[in-house]
Design brief:
By secondary structure, the chain is mainly α. The chain is 72% helix and 0% strand.
């Protein structure tokens, strides 16, 4: 019997297939070691077709970063309960963040491990995504400060720093929860809800005391 020709796949679908293959390859091999031949093989297409769609390895990596960044930011925004109290908004946003990074470990590895270490323009792409999330968290902490009746002036000075600290902690905790460096087997790793609770227990109790006017000082 002769071979049956498969239906032509729409360009957008084929491109996503290539990006999926690139995410997996970059995450597991690293940007430098990953080859277009390997990405094409994983995608089930020819290498010339990858070049036709995405031009170069650099442009392919940039496209991966943009897609994974947009997906992560959207997951956080979609998870937040907009009309809930500030602590509930932060809780739901963290659950969305940890759920997405757990469900997409290769995408998270590309963003947090690979893109940041390859210099411009890749690090710039990730920094833009991170700035968007920090801005979002800043607004939530600012709303919490307002709810608590904090003095607007010191609150404004501290909220941005607190947001950066919280996002940095979430990024580090996502690596831990996904088993990178922790040595935990997949079945032993915490759920997104458990990981979010860990960070809320660490951060929110301190934020609550801060908003009640308590300040730490070297003198005790």
């Amino acid at each position: 019997m002769g071979a049956v020709k498969s239906k032509r796949m729409p360009r957008a679908v084929r491109e996503q297939q290539m990006l999926d293959a690139a995410v997996l390859t970059f995450a597991r091999r690293g940007y430098r070691a990953a080859s277009m031949d390997e990405i094409a093989e994983v995608a089930g297409v020819s290498k010339p077709l990858v070049y036709l769609y995405l031009n170069s390895k650099e442009e392919l990596f940039s496209a991966v970063i943009r897609r994974e960044s947009a997906a992560l930011a959207e997951a956080v925004r979609a998870a937040v309960e907009p009309d809930a109290p500030a602590d509930r908004q932060l809780w739901s946003g963290l659950k969305g963040f940890f759920a997405h990074t757990a469900e997409n470990p290769d995408g998270w590895a590309v963003l947090h491990q690979q893109a940041r270490t390859q210099g411009e323009p890749f690090a710039v792409e990730v920094a833009a995504m991170r700035a968007e999330i920090v801005e979002f968290v800043t607004a939530m902490i600012g709303a919490a400060a307002q709810e608590a009746g904090c003095d607007p002036e010191p609150a404004a000075r501290e909220v941005s720093g607190l947001a950066h600290a919280l996002v940095g902690a979430a990024e580090s905790l996502a690596d831990w929860a996904n088993g990178r460096g922790s040595g935990t087997a997949p079945g032993e790793r915490p759920s997104a809800k458990e990981t979010a609770a860990t960070l809320m227990n660490f951060a929110w109790a301190g934020l609550g005391r801060l908003m009640d006017g308590e300040r730490w000082s070297p003198g005790g």
